[in-house]
Amino acid sequence: MSQFFHGVALSPGIGIGSVVLLAPMAFEEEGREVPDAGRSAELERLERALDVSEAALIRLEEEATERLGPDKAALFGAHRLMLRDPMLVDALREAVSEGKDAADAVVAKTAEIRALFEGLPDPYLRERGADVEDVGRRLFRALKGLPDPAELSGGEGAPFVVVARDLAPSDTALLDPAAVAALVTEQGGPTSHTAIIAQSMAIPAVSAVEGALERFPQGACAVVDGLRGAVVVDPDETELAEFRRARERFFLERDEAEILKDLPAVTADGVGLGLWGNIAGPGEAREVPARGGTGVGLFRTEFLYMGRGEPPTEEEQLGAYREALEALAPHPVTIRTLDAGGDKKIPYLASLVGPEANPFLGYRAIRICLDHPEIFKPQLRALLRAAVSGNLWLMFPMIVDLDELQAAKAQLDACAAELAAEGLPWARPAKVGVMIETPGAVLLAEELAREVDFFSVGTNDLTQYLLAADRMNPKLKRLQDPLHPSLIRALAAVAGAASSARIELGMCGEMAGDPRALPLLVALGFRELSMTPSRIPWVKKALRELEARNLEGLADVALKASTAQKLQRCLSELAGRR
Ligand code: PEP
Ligand code: MG
After folding, report:
1. Which residues crowd ion ligand 2, with CB under 5 Å?
2. Which helix (H) or strand (E) holds 274?
3. Looking at the structure, do residues 59 and 183 belong to the same domain, yes or no?
4. Distance, CA 542 to ligand 2 centroid (Å)?
5. Ligand having the closest approach to the CA of 344
6. What angle do helix axes 102-118 and 39-68 make, rounded to 10 degrees?
7. What is the DSSP code string of 517-537?
8. Please, which residues have CB within 8 angstroms of residue 334's CB and are 6 or more apart in sequence?
9. Which end of the chain has fewer CB atoms surrounding its CB within 10 Å, N or C?
10. Given the CA of residue 342, which atom of ligand 1 is nearest to it?
C-alpha cells in the first residue's frame, strides 16, 4: 500500500525511481591510542590521507567546472583550503604526535571546528559547518580506506531516488542527473547545499522527511514531488499515472516559462498585474524571477521555525529576510509573520498551545504571537531591520478583527521604538497589510482597510472557514472549490472595501494560480496574484490572452451565479469566445 511522507520542497520537479538508501557512515572516535613506537608511522598515514583527499578535491573541482561551471566548482576549491588550513592540519598533527589515532583525531577536531562555525550568528556561515564536516569525513574515509559516496553517480538500470540523512556538498555535486531521479533527505534546509546543487542540476529534492532511512524499503518505488514537498513510497497504478501526468505538466511549464519569462504580465489590451511567487524560505526567492515573477506575495515564515528545537533567533531571521529582500530588490517581498498551528505544527510550541480538539479553530498564528512577545518581537525586530535591504511588505495572518490588527501594529511600533533607541539600522516596511482569510475579516473588511496598505486574500483558509470544510479532508473536495458562490461573494465584498479605501488588493491562496479564475479576479479588481512559482507561466500565458475590456459586467454575472457549476459554465463560455 502506498505511503505518504511530508517534507520541505528543496528543488522543483517530480522524480520517480527506486530507493537507494545511503546509510550514514559511523563518524565516531574509537578511542584507540597509538604507542610511542607507532607515532611517526601514524603521522605519515595522516599526511598520505591529506594528500589523497587533496588530489580527490582537485579532481572534483575540475570535473565540476566542466559539468556545473566555475561558480559551483568553487565549493571544492574552498574545501581544499579548509583541508589545508593550519587550524585543522596543525591540530591533527599535534593530536597524532601525542598518541591519538589519526582517524579519531579527525573526528574530534572536525567536531570542534564545526561547533565554532555553528556558533556564529550568520545563518550562511553556520551552514558552512556542514562543509567542515564534509572535509573531515573525506579525510576519515581516506584513512579508513572507505569508498566515496560519489561513486553513486552513473548507476546502471532504472533511475534511483537517493535517500540519506543529509547529503554532503561533494556527494550531490557528483551525482549523475541522468541516473538520479530525485533526492530525499531527513535533514538540511532550503539554504543547504543539497538544495542549491539539486536546483542547479534540475534534480527534484525534498528534505525534512522524518525517519526516511528507517521507513523507506531499499529498492521500493518512490515518487518525489519537489513542487509540494512530498514523497509517496510504493504508489499504486493510479497514483503513478497521476504523477507521470504531473511530471509532463512540469516539463511543459518549464518550457513555457523559458518562453514567457521576460515578457510583461499584461492583458492583451495592456492592463498590468503583479504575478508573484509564494515561497517558504529565502533559497526559493530566486525561483520567482526564474519563472517570470516580479515579486513575492507570500513568504511563509513558519518554515524557518520548523525542523529545529527552538525558534530562530532575531539574527537568524534577519539573515533569511535580508537574503530574500536582496534577491528580489527593488521588487516587493511580502513577508507574513508566524502562522503556526492548524496544519503547521511546530513541536516546541506544543506546550504553549496545549491539547486542542479543533486545531484549525484553535490557538494559532497571530493569536499565539500577540500573547507571546518573546516569540513575536524577535520576528518583528528582524523584519524592521531587514526592511533596509529591500522592498518589504509586512503582513499579519489569521486576523479576525480590528483589535487583533491594532494590537499587532502596536507591537510593530514598539519594536521600531526599541530599535531606534538602540541605534540599530531599521526601516518601516514599504507597506503593512493583512491576510483576509477568515469570515470575520471579510465582514469587517471596511474597518480593516482603513488601517492597512494592502489586503491579500488567503483563499485556502477563507474557503475552509466560510464553508466549514477542513482543507485537509479529501472527502470534502466539492466544498474546497474557490468558485463556490459564497466565496465569490466574499471576494467581491473584500474587493469593494479595498477599492473604497484605495488600498492594494492581492491574493496569495491557491486560487491565484488557477488560470480558470483569472478573468474573474481581474474583473473584481485583484492586481497582485501570488502563487507557487511554477504556476506563474501558466497564469501569465492566460493573462496575455485576456482582453480586460471584455470583462466588464463579469463581476455582476458571477455574483448572480447561484452555484459553482453555473459560474464555471459562464467562465468556460467566456474562454470559448476568446
Ligand atoms: C491561505 O490560507 O490561503 C494562505 C495563502 O495561507 P496558508 O496556505 O499558508 O494557510
Ligand atoms: Mg492561511
Report:
1. 437, 458, 461
2. strand 274-279
3. no
4. 25
5. 1
6. 50
7. GHHHHHHHT--EEEE-GGGHH
8. 276, 295, 296, 297, 298, 299, 393, 394, 395, 433, 456, 506, 508, 530
9. N
10. 10
User: Residue 239 sits in which domain range?
Assistant: 3-24+149-243
Q: CA torsion sign, 95 to 100 to 103 to 106?
A: negative
Give catalytic status of residue 193 as yes or no. Answer: yes
Q: 79 an active-site residue?
A: no
Ligand 1 within 6 A of CB of 453: no
Does residue 437 line the site of ligand 1, with CB under 6 A? yes
- Is the same domain home to 490 and 470? yes
Q: What is the 513 CA–ligand 2 centroid distance (Å)?
A: 15
**Nearest residue by C-alpha to atom 9 in ligand 1:** 300
For residue 163, the cross-strand partners are: 21, 184
Atom of ligand 1 nearest to the CA of 397: 6
**Assigned domain for 258 exists:** no
> How many independent structural domains does the chain possess?
3
CATH number reported for the structural domain that contains residue 170 in this entry? 3.50.30.10
Tens of pLDDT along 108-165?
Answer: 999 999 888 888 877 667 777 888 988 999 999 899 877 666 655 434 566 889 998 8
Q: What is the 3-state secondary structure (H, E, C) of 210-273?
A: CCHHHHCCCCCEEEEECCCCEEEECCCHHHHHHHHHHHHHHHHHHHHHHHHCCCCCECCCCCEC
Which grid cell is 102? 589519526
Tell me which of 186, 212, 243 is where a domain ends. 243
Instruction: Determine the atom of ligand 1 nearest the C-alpha atom of 457.
Output: 3
User: CATH number of the domain that 509 lies in?
Assistant: 3.20.20.60
Q: What is the pLDDT of residue 308?
A: 74
Q: What is the mean pLDDT of residues 496-518?
A: 94
Which range, of 177-181, 193-197, 563-567, averages the lowest pLDDT? 193-197
Q: Which of 193, 369, 484, 570 is catalytic?
A: 193
**Residue 509 CA: which ligand is closest?**
1
Q: Whose CA is nearest to atom 1 of ligand 1?
A: 458
Instruction: For strands 8-11 and 205-207, give the pairing.
Output: antiparallel
Task: Name the residue with the closest Cα to ligand 1, atom 4.
Answer: 458
> For residue range 46-89, what is the model confidence (pLDDT) as tens digits?
999 999 999 988 988 887 787 767 776 788 888 999 999 998 99
Residue 249 is assigned to a structural domain of this protein: no
Does 517 share its domain with 463? yes
